[in-house]
């Protein structure tokens, strides 16, 4: 569950104060999926980073699963970030690690010594079972993003934030990846917030918001 109230994010642009996010309000019930649209520069990534605890708002409140982010200290924020999954436009895979090693890397840091019981079923659902020993550069864009999704889901996140995960994919692959991502999140009751440029991908989502001039339209 995500609840945002009167969220403001202000930056100084030379002498001007720029209200990048201006009194945003949002409610995403548990397990629901939100698509966030808006022109380039409209503040989508900034908003996602605030929700993910990577950036601090200037005013207003952000509550995730009844935890008010601004009240968390550094240690609590680090614990919070462990419970979220991040998916990026440029995949952010480690070039010199195999697919299997990439998927397991963060899990091993988060859960040292614990067997990753979800690894095999996830790899199968994402159709990566024949690619486990490949290096990222040997994969197509769609395959690389499926590795990014497996890596995020393996950590059993409560929420996934995805920033233009289909930005580098053609239309067909974009639909495949978003369909898979929303299905996997539904099965696991995970809240999903996905930034996208494409109005054609919004059918997969419970809620759609468009950012413009710091507001939701
Ligand atoms: N830390 C910052 N300092 C100054 N300006 C920023 C900062 N972060 C973002 N911006 C500005 O905020 C606006 C929104 O950026 P961003 O969130 O990346 O947009 P989007 O993801 O929608 O393309 C842009 O004009 C950007 O230059
Ligand atoms: Mg962005």
UniProtKB/TrEMBL annotation:
It comes from Colwellia demingiae. Pfam families: ABC_tran (PF00005). This is ABC transporter ATP-binding protein. GO terms for cellular component: plasma membrane. CDD domains: ABC_MJ0796_LolCDE_FtsE. The lineage of its organism: Bacteria, Pseudomonadati, Pseudomonadota, Gammaproteobacteria, Alteromonadales. Residues 2-217 form the ABC transporter domain. The keyword Mitochondrion does not apply. One of its GO terms (molecular function) is transmembrane transporter activity. It comes from the Bacteria. InterPro entries: AAA+_ATPase (IPR003593), ABC_transporter-like_ATP-bd (IPR003439), ABC_transporter-like_CS (IPR017871), ABC_transpr_LolD-like (IPR015854), MacB-like_ATP-bd (IPR017911), P-loop_NTPase (IPR027417).
């Amino acid at each position: 569950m995500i609840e945002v109230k009167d969220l403001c994010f202000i930056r100084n642009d030379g002498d001007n104060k720029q209200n990048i996010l201006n009194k945003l309000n949002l409610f995403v019930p548990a397990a629901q999926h939100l698509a966030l649209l808006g022109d380039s520069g409209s503040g989508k990534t900034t908003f996602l980073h605030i929700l993910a605890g990577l950036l601090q708002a200037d005013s207003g409140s952000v509550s995730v699963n009844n935890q008010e982010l601004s009240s968390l200290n550094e240690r609590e924020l680090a614990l919070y970030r462990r419970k979220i999954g991040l998916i990026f436009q440029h995949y952010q895979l480690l070039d010199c690690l195999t697919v299997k090693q990439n998927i397991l890397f963060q899990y091993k840091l988060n859960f040292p010594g614990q067997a990753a019981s979800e690894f095999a079923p996830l790899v199968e659902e994402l159709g990566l079972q024949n690619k486990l020993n490949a290096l990222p550069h040997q994969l197509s864009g769609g395959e690389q993003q499926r590795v990014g999704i497996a890596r995020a889901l393996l950590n059993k996140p409560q929420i996934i934030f995805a920033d233009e995960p289909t930005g580098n994919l053609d239309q067909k692959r974009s639909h495949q990846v978003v369909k898979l991502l929303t299905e996997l999140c539904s099965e696991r009751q995970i809240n999903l917030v996905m930034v996208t440029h494409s109005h054609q991908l919004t059918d997969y989502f419970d809620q759609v918001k468009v950012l413009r001039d710091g507001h939701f339209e």
